[in-house]
């Protein structure tokens, strides 16, 4: 399914993007981020997804829209404000053709709408999932459920001359619902009738206008075949381990390594802890520690849902092992606080926050909306550094009511923004 681009119903400089097919998150080596760890008759499946066009696809789509308008792509602004990604789920097809859900997660709320699933695979479905992870299509799928919110706005302006002649001007974008246009006409005509009934002077031109907006919400669904993702490159997706008959005591020198913060909402696909020949893997949602034979210092290797190179960081052991921080994983937590604007009377705040890394980080643009549901928000950006290693730019700050003074542009080298 191709990507779709449409103009905002109220501002023709804003382009809404509706992504096409659900895509796999990619490892630094360029392979789909799909892993099955099987032990005996049980397995753990981890996979990452993204739902947003690449830079080349975005540029091509904007160029096509600009050409239709007879303008320049630089005059257009991209937004995902009309999109809501509700869930991403994994489904397996059994031998009798029935489908069974293995698990689901909520994707990130902003582009690229990334999701990381980590689900247990029961014995009866392990064979099908294993074959899918070796490149066989038709057995394992991922499904995205979302919603597209858009609307239709039409305005009608009527001018009644003293002689009774009425001129009509309609304002709306192409493709507007005819019923909305007709509703604007009827409302304007009713207002003209009221104005005439008020008894104005016969030599006065009466002018009235009416605007009607009709919001709508359309469900979105995307399905992708995991086997088709990795067909032709099946190596490195399935790892088999013999299941021990009974739990063995940890060998001398074994210590736990875990994540010391909630990394389930971070754009992290996988974490490896390496120490010499020893390797421990921490899969999403990173809420369980792993064991590794190591003494002193290990290397944390972090791969990201947003792609790009992995980040390596040396971490010294604590008294009881290793507890990885966001800095150890090459992440920086960005926070935005608009409570000061709320205290001055604001009821809603919108802004675009751009992360511009100065090193090897991944640039990101995010639209935030703050209001009664919360006046603070935070998320993680991929800095591939111990801190922010870059700057944050705040543009398009829109405060309701508009009478409140607010800067149109902010720049910060600190990750904590106060509006």
SSE blueprint and pairings:
Layout: E1 4-7, E2 14-18, E3 23-24, E4 34-39, E5 42-50, H1 55-69, E6 77-79, E7 83-93, E8 99-105, E9 115-121, H2 123-133, E10 140-160, E11 166-172, H3 178-197, E12 206-225, H4 226-230, E13 238-241, E14 254-259, E15 268-275, E16 278-282, E17 290-293, E18 297-304, E19 311-316, E20 322-324, E21 331-337, H5 339-343, E22 348-357, E23 364-370, E24 376-382, E25 390-400, E26 409-412, E27 416-418
Parallel strand pairs: 2-6, 4-13, 14-20, 21-27
Antiparallel strand pairs: 1-2, 3-5, 4-5, 5-9, 7-8, 7-10, 10-11, 10-12, 14-17, 15-16, 15-18, 18-19, 21-24, 22-23, 22-25, 25-26
User: What is the strand tally?
Assistant: 27
Question: Stretches where pLDDT falls below 50 for ≥5 residues?
Answer: none
What is the number of helices? 5
The main sheet comes to: 5 strands, mixed
C-alpha Rg, in Å?
A: 27 Å
* Average pLDDT number: 86
How does the helix and strand content classify structurally? Answer: mainly beta
Q: In whole angstroms, how far apart are the ends?
A: 40 Å
Helix content: 10-25%
Q: Beta-sheet strand percentage?
A: over 45%
Shape: elongated
Q: Would you write up a description of this structure?
A:
The protein has 419 residues and is mainly beta. Helix content is 13%, strand content 47%. The chain is built from 5 helices and 27 strands. The chain has helices at 55-69, 123-133, 178-197, 226-230, 339-343, and strands at 4-7, 14-18, 23-24, 34-39, 42-50, 77-79, 83-93, 99-105, 115-121, 140-160, 166-172, 206-225, 238-241, 254-259, 268-275, 278-282, 290-293, 297-304, 311-316, 322-324, 331-337, 348-357, 364-370, 376-382, 390-400, 409-412, 416-418. The strands form 7 sheets. Strands 3, 4, 5, 9 and 13 form a 5-stranded mixed β-sheet that branches. Strands 7, 8, 10, 11 and 12 form a 5-stranded antiparallel β-sheet that branches. It is elongated, with a radius of gyration of 27 Å.
């Amino acid at each position: 399914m191709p990507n779709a681009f449409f103009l905002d119903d109220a501002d023709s400089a804003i382009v809404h993007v509706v992504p096409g097919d659900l895509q796999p998150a990619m490892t630094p080596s360029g392979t789909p981020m799909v892993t099955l760890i099987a032990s005996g008759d049980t397995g753990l499946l981890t996979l990452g997804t993204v739902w947003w066009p690449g830079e080349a696809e975005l540029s091509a789509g904007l160029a096509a829209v600009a050409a239709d308008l007879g303008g320049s792509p630089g005059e257009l602004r991209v937004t995902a404000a009309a999109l809501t990604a509700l869930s991403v789920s994994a489904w397996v097809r059994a031998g009798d053709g029935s489908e069974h859900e293995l698990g689901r997660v909520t994707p990130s709320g902003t582009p690229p709408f990334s999701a990381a699933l980590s689900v247990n695979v029961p014995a009866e479905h392990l064979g099908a999932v294993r074959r899918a992870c070796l490149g066989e299509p038709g057995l394992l799928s991922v499904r995205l459920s979302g919603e597209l919110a858009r609307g239709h706005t039409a305005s009608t302006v009527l001018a009644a001359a003293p002689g009774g002649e009425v001129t009509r001007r309609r304002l709306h974008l192409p493709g507007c619902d005819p019923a909305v246009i007709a509703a604007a006409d009827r409302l304007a005509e009713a207002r003209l009738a009221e104005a005439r009934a008020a008894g104005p002077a016969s030599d006065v031109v009466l002018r009235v206008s009416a605007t009607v907006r009709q919001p709508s919400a359309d469900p979105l669904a995307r399905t992708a075949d995991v086997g088709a993702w990795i067909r032709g490159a099946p190596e490195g997706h399935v790892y088999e381990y013999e299941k021990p008959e009974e739990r063995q005591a940890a060998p001398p020198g074994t210590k736990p390594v875990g994540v010391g913060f909630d990394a389930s909402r971070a754009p992290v696909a996988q974490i490896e802890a390496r120490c010499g020949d020893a390797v421990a893997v921490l899969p999403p949602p990173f809420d369980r520690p792993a064991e590794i034979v190591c003494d002193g210092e290990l290397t944390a290797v972090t791969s990201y849902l947003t792609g790009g190179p992995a980040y390596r960081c040396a971490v010294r052991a604590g008294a009881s092992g290793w507890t990885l921080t966001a800095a150890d994983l090459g992440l920086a937590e960005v926070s935005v606080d608009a409570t000061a604007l709320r205290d001055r009377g604001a009821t809603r705040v919108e802004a675009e926050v751009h992360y511009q890394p100065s090193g090897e980080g991944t640039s990101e643009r995010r639209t935030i909306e703050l209001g009664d549901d919360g006046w603070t928000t935070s998320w993680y950006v991929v800095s591939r550094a111990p801190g922010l290693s870059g700057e944050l730019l705040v543009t398009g700050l829109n405060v309701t009511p508009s009478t409140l003074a607010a800067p149109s542009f902010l720049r910060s080298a600190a990750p904590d923004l106060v509006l």
